[in-house]
Amino acid sequence: MRYPRLLTSGGREVTILEMRELLRRVFLVDLFKGMWVTFRYQAPKNIYTEQYPQERPMVAERYRGAPRLNMNPETGESLCISCNLCALACPENLIVVGWLRDDATRRKVLTTFTYDTSRCMFCGLCEDACPTDCLELTQDFEMASYSREGAIWDRHRLEAGPTPTHYTR
């Protein structure tokens, strides 16, 4: 199909399609189409707001957050056998396990356990390497702070587990 040609003031021939494209650019048609799509989705019926501090959001089932050292519920002792596998599996080298050998039982006894949460990327490799399931990454995500002082968690803080803040109105 052949389109009619128009003459411009310079003597150049222009097709109808070229003229239509020129008018679309001059009147910013594509910009207004994009703005229409954006504003169409800004309707109040489509907006959802979470009341975050008062209502905790649901996190994914497999989410990995703050670490915790699990305790034996019957004896109250740590399940950690000081095997150091979690520290070896950690790609960031942020876990330090300290232990002493008990002369009576010839077993390792956990003395110190430090976990640097400021460098942790929450990959879960330490959790997977633990043979006794004593190290666990919980679903708590509120670990932000304004300084680095509280980023290195010791054994007692890990055994207590994360303590999420409960907000009230």
Structural descriptors:
169 residues, alpha+beta, Alpha-Beta Plaits, 2 domains, three-stranded antiparallel beta sheet, two-stranded antiparallel sheet, 5 helices
Write a short abstract of this structure:
The chain is an alpha+beta fold and 169 residues long.
Topology summary:
Layout: E1 5-7, E2 13-15, H1 16-26, H2 29-40, E3 67-69, H3 85-89, E4 95-101, E5 108-116, H4 125-129, E6 135-137, E7 152-153, H5 155-160
Antiparallel strand pairs: 1-2, 3-6, 4-5, 5-7
Description:
- This protein has five helices and seven strands, in the order E-E-H-H-E-H-E-E-H-E-E-H.
- It has helices at residues 16-26, 29-40, 85-89, 125-129, 155-160, and strands at residues 5-7, 13-15, 67-69, 95-101, 108-116, 135-137, 152-153.
- The chain is of the alpha+beta class and 169 residues long.
- The relative contact order is 0.16.
- Strand 1 (5-7) and strand 2 form a beta hairpin.
- The chain has two domains: 5-46, no CATH class; 67-160, 2-Layer Sandwich (Alpha-Beta Plaits).
- It has a three-stranded antiparallel beta sheet.
- Write the element-wise H/E pattern from the N-terminal end onward: EEHHEHEEHEEH
Using only CA atoms, what is the Rg? 31 Å
CATH class categorisation of the largest domain: Alpha Beta
Q: Any guess at the CATH architecture of the largest domain?
A: 2-Layer Sandwich
Shape: elongated
Structure summary, number of beta strands: 7
Number of domains: 2
Under CATH, the topology of the largest domain can be stated as Alpha-Beta Plaits
Mean of pLDDT: 87
Biggest sheet, open or closed, and with what strands and sense?
A: 3 strands, antiparallel
Helical segment count: 5
Characterize the quaternary organization of these chains.
Answer: single chain
**Which structural class should the secondary elements be placed in?**
alpha+beta
The proportion of residues in beta strands is 15-25%
